[in-house]
C-alpha cells in the first residue's frame, strides 16, 4: 500500500546483484573446495537457487561478521538432476546445466519453459554444449546432456544472439574443458564479468569477459575462492528513477554509475542529473524537469530491458511524448494496462509503446488497485504509486521479493509512505 506524492530524499544503499548472484551460486557446483561469496542479497530467487544447488550437493552456511556472507561447499555431487518443481520457480535454474556437465559429466535439467515476459528458449545454451561435445536429448520436459568419454572439449562457439544465460552456462562448462574455447558473439553484461572474475579466482583461465569474444583455456580443476558480488545495477537504476519520478534527490551508495552503461545517457536526456560522490553518486531532477525521451532496449551497454518498465513509469510524468521500444522480450508490456488504471496515457504499437507524458501540468497519475505481473512490471507500479495522488494497492507483490532486497524498508528510509499488508 503506497500513498504517493512524497519526494524521496536521503541515502539509499544498493544490494548485491540478483543477476550476478544466481550464476555465481550455480558456480559453487564446480569445486570440491569451499567457496565464500559476500554481498549475497536476501532475495526469493537467491533462496530458490540455494535450494536447487543444495539438492545437487552444495552445503551452504551463513557466516557471521557481515550480512550476506555465505560459505558454499560441494564435496561431491549428490545428484545431476534439476527437477521441475525447483526449476519452474525460476528460469535462471538452467544455469546449473554447465556446472553439472563439467563436474559430473551429466546434467538432467527440467526445461525452464517460458514466463510472463516471453517464450525464452534455451536453444543457444544447448547448441553451445553440443559444440563442447555434449550429447543432448530432450524427453518428457527434461534436457539430458552427457559429456563424451574423457570430458568436454574446447571449441569455437558462435552465439547468434548475445544471450546472457547462454554465455554464463558456456563459461562454466568450458572452464574445465580440454583445450581452448572461444565464444563469439558473447553477451557483454557486467554480470558476465563478475562470473568470469569468480571463475578466474577459482583458477580458470578466461580472457575477454565484457567483450563479445571470450577465450577460455580449460584447466584441470577449479579451487576455492572468496568473492564479493557486484552491486545491482538494475536496482540502482530503479531507485534513480524513484528519485526522478517524485522530484526528489537520492544519494545512492554502493552503486556504480559506470554500471548503468548507456542507460545513464538516456536518463540524463530525460532530465536527471548525476554527481559522483565518494561512495556512490547522487541523483536529482534538473531544473527544466522531466522530458519525454525515446528509448529502445538493447543488450549491454544499451538500455537494459530490465529498466524498461520503470522508465515507462518515469515518462508518464515527463513533459511530452516518449516512444519506448522493447527488442529483447516479445511480451514485456504487461505493466501498460496496470499503469493505465492509474491514469497513464499509453498506447501500444507492436513492440513500441507511446507514452503521453503529463509532466508540465503536474502528475495525472492517481492511486488505484493494481496487479503485479512480473518483477520489473511490479516495480514500475511502485514507482508510479510513489508519484501518484492518493493510495495505490499493489497486489501479488511476491514478484518484487524475487529481485528487490528490503524494498519497503529502503523506500521508507528515504521518506516514502509504503507499507506491506500481510
Ligand atoms: C538471471 C538473469 O541474468 N536474467 C537476465 C538475463 O536473462 P536471460 O539470460 O534469460 O536472457 P538472454 O540474454 O538469454 O535472452 C536474451 C534474448 O535471447 C533469446 N534467447 C536466449 C537464449 C537462447 O538460448 N535462445 C534465445 O533465443 C531470449 O528469448 C531473449 O529474446 O538477461 C536478460 C536480458 O538482459 C535479463 O532481462 C534478465 O534479467
Ligand atoms: C527478467 C528478469 O529476471 P529472470 O531472468 O531471472 O527472469 C529480471 O531480473 O528482470
UniProtKB/TrEMBL annotation:
EC number, as in UniProt: 2.5.1.7
First-level EC class: transferase
GO MF annotation terms: UDP-N-acetylglucosamine 1-carboxyvinyltransferase activity
Active site: 115 (proton donor)
Subcellular compartments: Cytoplasm
Family: Belongs to the EPSP synthase family. MurA subfamily.
Protein name according to UniProt: UDP-N-acetylglucosamine 1-carboxyvinyltransferase
Source organism of this protein record: Arboricoccus pini
Gene symbol of the encoding locus: murA
Amino acid at each position: 500500500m503506497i500513498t504517493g506524492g512524497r519526494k524521496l530524499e536521503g541515502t539509499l544503499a544498493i544490494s548485491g546483484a540478483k543477476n550476478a548472484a544466481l550464476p555465481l551460486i550455480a558456480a559453487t557446483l564446480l569445486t570440491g573446495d569451499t567457496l565464500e561469496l559476500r554481498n549475497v542479497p536476501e532475495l526469493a530467487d537467491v533462496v530458490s537457487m540455494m535450494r536447487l544447488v543444495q539438492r545437487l550437493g552444495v552445503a551452504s552456511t551463513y557466516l557471521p561478521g557481515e550480512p550476506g556472507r555465505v560459505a558454499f561447499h560441494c564435496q561431491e555431487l549428490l545428484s545431476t538432476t534439476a527437477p521441475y518443481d525447483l526449476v519452474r520457480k525460476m528460469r535462471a535454474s538452467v544455469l546449473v546445466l554447465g556446472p553439472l556437465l563439467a563436474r559430473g559429466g551429466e546434467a538432467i535439467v527440467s526445461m525452464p519453459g517460458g514466463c510472463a515476459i516471453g517464450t525464452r528458449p534455451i536453444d543457444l545454451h544447448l547448441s553451445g554444449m553440443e559444440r563442447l561435445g555434449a550429447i543432448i536429448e530432450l524427453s518428457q520436459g527434461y534436457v539430458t546432456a552427457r559429456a563424451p568419454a574423457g570430458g568436454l572439449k574446447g571449441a569455437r562457439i558462435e552465439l547468434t544472439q548475445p544471450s546472457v544465460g547462454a554465455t554464463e552456462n558456456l563459461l562454466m562448462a568450458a572452464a574445465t574443458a580440454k583445450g581452448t574455447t572461444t565464444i563469439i558473439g558473447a553477451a557483454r553484461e557486467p554480470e558476465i564479468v563478475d562470473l568470469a572474475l569468480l571463475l578466474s579466482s577459482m583458477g580458470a583461465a578466461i580472457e575477454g569477459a565484457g567483450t563479445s569474444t571470450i577465450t577460455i583455456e580449460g584447466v584441470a580443476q577449479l579451487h576455492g575462492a572468496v568473492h564479493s558480488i557486484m552491486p545491482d545495477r538494475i536496482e540502482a537504476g530503479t531507485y534513480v528513477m524513484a528519485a526522478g519520478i517524485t522530484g526528489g534527490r537520492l544519494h545512492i551508495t554502493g552503486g556504480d554509475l559506470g554500471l548503468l552503461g548507456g542507460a545513464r545517457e538516456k536518463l540524463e536526456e530525460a532530465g536527471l542529473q548525476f554527481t559522483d560522490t565518494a561512495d556512490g553518486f547522487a541523483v536529482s531532477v534538473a531544473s527544466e524537469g522531466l522530458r519525454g525521451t525515446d528509448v529502445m532496449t538493447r543488450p549491454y551497454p544499451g538500455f537494459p530491458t530490465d529498466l524498461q518498465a520503470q522508465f515507462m513509469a518515469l515518462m508518464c510524468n515527463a513533459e511530452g511524448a516518449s516512444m519506448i521500444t522493447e527488442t529483447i522480450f516479445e511480451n514485456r508490456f504487461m505493466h501498460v494496462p496496470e499503469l493505465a488504471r492509474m491514469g497513464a496515457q499509453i498506447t501500444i504499437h507492436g513492440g513500441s509503446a507511446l507514452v503521453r507524458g503529463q509532466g508540465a501540468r503536474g502528475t495525472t497519475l492517481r492511486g488505484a488497485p493494481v496487479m503485479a505481473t512480473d518483477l520489473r512490471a511490479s516495480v514500475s507500479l511502485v514507482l508510479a504509486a510513489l508519484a501518484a495522488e492518493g493510495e495505490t494497492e499493489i497486489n501479488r507483490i511476491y514478484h518484487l521479493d524475487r529481485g528487490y532486497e528490503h524494498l519497503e524498508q529502503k523506500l521508507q528510509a528515504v521518506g516514502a509512505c509504503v507499507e506491506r499488508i500481510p
